[in-house]
Amino acid sequence: MKKIDGHAHIVDTIAGFNGKGRLNALGNGYAIWDDGDLIKLIEDGYGDKDFSAEALLRYMDANDVEKAVILQGHLNGYQNYYTYLAMKRYPDRFTGAFSVDPYAENAMAIVRRHVEELGFRAIKFEISQGGGIHGYRGQKTPFRLDTDPHVSLILSYLLDYPGFVVTVDYGNFDQISHQPDAIANLARLYPSLDFVVCHLSFPHADTPHRLRAELSMWQEYPNIYTDLSAIQDIDSPDSFPFPKSEANVRIAKEVLGAKRLIWGTDSPWSATFNSYEDLATWLEKLDVFSPEELADVLYNNAERVYFKESAVTANRQAQDPVTEHLNLQ
Q: Which residue windows are transmembrane per the record (predicted)?
């Protein structure tokens, strides 16, 4: 069955940053945060201090994954330009989102460059307290996506690009960044934009009522989707074929329907906890979806949301003078 990995990462140079400080590459796929937390970021054989576009393609080709959506995150550091180069080099395999700190002085100049010059048609906000903006900016001054003027300035600009995708990682329910209700407000305020919430709103099988209630906030807004990436890690321990994740996905199908769910892996980090093969095949081992629904979750939904013709055309037509000057391929 055809697949699109709807949530993946590539890393040219590890540059992670969040409330733990800076992520420092050590080699052999390991990295250490400034607070001393050591992590295995990249599976053996897939990169020493980087996880290249070609390494992701190795995962994909070995598991019959046709395309991937490359997202940004504070774990790896924003890989915006490397993502642009990967989309240009492999236009039939990759699309992607860029990220910007909305509080940066030149935030709008960064947004305009990525949209108007580089052809991006998706933006990722990782605002989580655990791994994103709230971890280093929001402790004393928490902000909401649906009322913050810096975010509103960006979203208002994006209204000139109907169908633009806004992807959000807002962290676990016990973090001040957790904002499922803000997503509902944004979908109402910006009906011409598509919103994708990462990681199924951070589900836990032992609190099914919370997950059902949060997803129900989005029922009446057809421009809200959610991806299923890394939910095995969030609700761990859970071993293949991931019964806890199955229980959470059943609730998601019940509340939102199969056409609003997007499969993804959150590689490379998640592939160090569970193999990419297991992450690529677990949904096919379950009886949650009919064959038609499974095709939607594994391929059609990501194709419809992220691989819009306007997005593909915009990136293929993008002309970046830096790329041309340095002869980057």
A: none
